[in-house]
């Protein structure tokens, strides 16, 4: 969880932003109650930390798994939809019959662009198969797939692809679009409206 990122976002809010951001602020506190409980206690004690936190002192935080998932998905989607995504970190592939029947072949140039921002990737690892995570934030499902290189720099997803394609209900002709988040060290499934290089891309 990007606690520091949330801190910067919260500090940037104006007081009149309180109502329209109330759910996101509650989520921020809910996340902290799980991952940074000691820090949350300090925030709740310090009235000067931020007026919005002070207003929520007597609010019961709903951190049940269903509610937490709902808020987490909403805010995660908002974060990726709000930010301009680096097009160089996106892999996009219109799926063919062979991609659906077997392993999915990935565009070489796009994969090589993403590899420049991947940590811990070696030639040997790619030849043997390198595990990466793929996050569908709309359903909060996390997949582990093997990225592998064969036959003169051809790339594909192997192990884990079958589970992922069935879970996402992908069929021939669908566009698989993935964004590499180098800070979270995982792919994000771009199955929601997002911006790339200043252009809004619909689902």
Distance between the termini: 26 Å
CATH architecture of the largest domain: Beta Barrel
Structural class determined from secondary elements: alpha+beta
Indicate how many domains the architecture comprises: 2
The named CATH superfamily of the largest domain: DNA-binding pseudobarrel domain
Helix and strand run = HHHHHEEHEHHEEEHEEEE
Task: Determine the number of helices (DSSP H or I, runs of at least 4 residues).
Answer: 9
How would a crystallographer describe the biggest sheet?
A: 7 strands, mixed
Q: What is the overall silhouette?
A: globular
Strand element count = 10
Stretches where pLDDT is under 50 for at least 5 consecutive residues are 198-203
CATH class placement of the largest domain: Mainly Beta
Domain TF-B3: 91-195
Subcellular location: Nucleus
Protein name: TF-B3 domain-containing protein
GO molecular function, one term: DNA binding
Question: How does this model look, in words?
Answer:
The chain folds into two domains: 2-61, no CATH class; 87-196, Beta Barrel (At1g16640 B3 domain), CATH 2.40.330. 40% of the residues lie in helices and 24% in strands. The protein has helices spanning 3-12, 22-35, 37-45, 51-55, 65-82, 97-101, 108-115, 123-128, 161-167, and strands at 84-85, 90-94, 104-106, 130-136, 141-150, 154-157, 175-181, 186-189, 194-196, 199-201. It is globular and about 55 Å long.
How would you sum up this structure in a few lines?
This protein has 203 residues and is of the alpha+beta class. 40% of the residues lie in helices and 24% in strands.
